[in-house]
Amino acid sequence: MTMLILEHQMEIFWDAREAAYAHRLARYLRNHYANANDIDEAQVRALVLAGQAAGLDSERQLAIYVAGTWLFGDAFLAGIEPLRDDFRNDTIGPEAIAQLLLEQFEQLEARTSL
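Structure (tokenized):
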């Protein structure tokens, strides 16, 4: 019985942590990018889940993935497609993944005027 209560409490904790993360990230995007004014926490959470399904796991990786996907859409996703196996198979480290995502983001940002 105690284990069930503990599992339930951990689930509540993670849900709250995920909601707080989504709130902070949505607020950051709205404050820094004009074309992100209409993003909300639910959309961020959906993109975070998509990023996790793609094999991303750190907050930094997910933040770049969410921003890139929201701001650049298919162009960002196409640019990171060749890297998806690396994300899933852990063939490169988490910081290297974040750096590759950031490079793709910066390339697209340089080509557009956000």
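DSSP finds six helices and no strands in the chain. The chain has a mean pLDDT of 82.
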